[in-house]
Automatic annotation (TrEMBL):
GO molecular function, one term: acid phosphatase activity
Keywords: Hydrolase, Membrane, Signal, Transmembrane, Transmembrane helix
SUPFAM superfamilies: Metallo-dependent phosphatases, Purple acid phosphatase, N-terminal domain
Residues of the Calcineurin-like phosphoesterase domain: 171-348
Keyword set includes Transmembrane: yes
Disordered, as annotated region: 33-56
Keyword Signal applies: yes
Spans through the membrane: 483-504
Pfam families given in the database record: Metallophos, Pur_ac_phosph_N
Positions of the Purple acid phosphatase N-terminal domain: 60-141
InterPro entries, alphabetized: Calcineurin-like_PHP, Metallo-depent_PP-like, PAPs-like, PAPs_N, Purple_acid_Pase-like_N
Compositionally biased spans, kind Low complexity: 33-52
Species of origin: Corynebacterium liangguodongii
Organism taxonomic ancestry: Bacteria, Bacillati, Actinomycetota, Actinomycetes, Mycobacteriales
Name of the protein in question: Phosphohydrolase
Amino acid sequence: MRSASSASPVSSVLSAATVLVLALVLGAEAPADAAPGSSSSSSSPSDTSSGPVFRAATQVGPDASSVNFSWRTSFSGPEVVRIYPDGSPERAIEVPGREVDFGAIAYRSRFAEVTGLEPGVAYSYQIGSEAGGWSAPETVTIDDGDDHWRFVAVTDAQIGVGARISEQARTWRETAARAAEQAPDASLFVSLGDQVEGWGDLIGTLGQYNAYFSAPQLRRYRFAAIEGNHETYPSSLATRHFKEHWDLPNEQGDTSNYFFEQNNALFIALNSNRKDDAGLAEQAQFVREAASAHGSDKDWVIVLNHFAFHSHGGRYTDEDIVRMRETLSPVFSEVGVDLVLNGHDHMYNRSHLMNGLSPRVPNAPAAPGDVLEKEDGEVLYLTFNTAGGGKYYDFEGNDGKEYPGMTLEQAREAGLNQPTIALWNQDYTPDYSVVEVDGDALNVRSYNTFDGSLVDDVTLSHSAVDAPGDGQPEAPTGGSSEAAAGIGIAAAVIGAIGIVAALVGNLPQLAERFGITL
């Protein structure tokens, strides 16, 4: 059985009754009419001011000139995003927020979409109202719109592993800060799932979401996030928190599959929690449609997918991973996907160039600095290490055994590497990656958060490859799910223990509500 190299997930020791108690945080542990103060990530920077807005974020919109805003609020009246070019408040516009409700009753969520922003311009903004108060001023900069730009990729901050929220929040903030220092001009950040651990306190004043959103980069760069498996714990009902925090552009119905365009690249973000045949067919069709309708004029098509197809993190031969790999890899090659970014396995892995399920293995062993000349149908898969440092997985060889502390060179000498994996690294420290994009080449450099050392440096070149998506069917119109109203729940902190105790006395009813078998 696969083992983590840090504290085991809380799920491994929870009884069904304990899960139910923890599940209460899915809707009842934080008053909606009291904006949280400092979270359990002690002395962490807060995204609150004197106003009611908290856990705010700037997120990707459908294209490079748009920003989707998401925030939580304790104010019941109307709120807006007030935004203007930095230094020109006379040009301010106000975009009304709309309430969204996916069932997370412990707080009120609002989204607003701002479009038509000018390339290369820094915009100042605040969220709130005159009646309720305003968030602290922040600035977000719009990409200059040319075809040479950068973005940051992170994954698995997974705040809350072993209930060590403060420690992991500090590491996550350091990772995000180091990434922003390395790429201050980044057009966006992508987060490849497992933003939080799940199970425990998700949204209270000691909550995992408060800790995740304490990173100020979430309000200064456009973020794109996807669902990981931990967004579904302790049950699929937990995805309500993901849905109420992330305003997904061009979403396929209510699936959390979505796409967005950035300069000369198309990003296709998948909800890989749907691993059954129907879910995989849905993802395959979405990839085909998005690439056909929006990829033919792009230099690059990039897929964001939480589960890793090519990794030594202990899941390479798992039935669900094999099924995903065999179903989706041929589709990625078919439609002209260039790069697939993964998380989940808490270690760094780089595949060979893959055409469907077939690797192209070069004569020389892979090494940092490689330049890979991509041929038609070939895809590069990269799996990134955790951004939060809560746990790591040991190298698992092609013999199914774990080898703690093994190096790439030792694995090569012992013949333990999987045939599709070119290079891997497990140094048990958090990482981030900076992706530099231009018309002919795409470079990915991955860095160690703590000491800044280079984990890998790989360049993908495709100057001779056909445009993606040629000859594929039209894509449907995407759109985000909306709800007319969100509701707040008023509760005094002093009464929280009593509420939990009362609910624990009704375990059968709670089990039915949360879909958990006692």
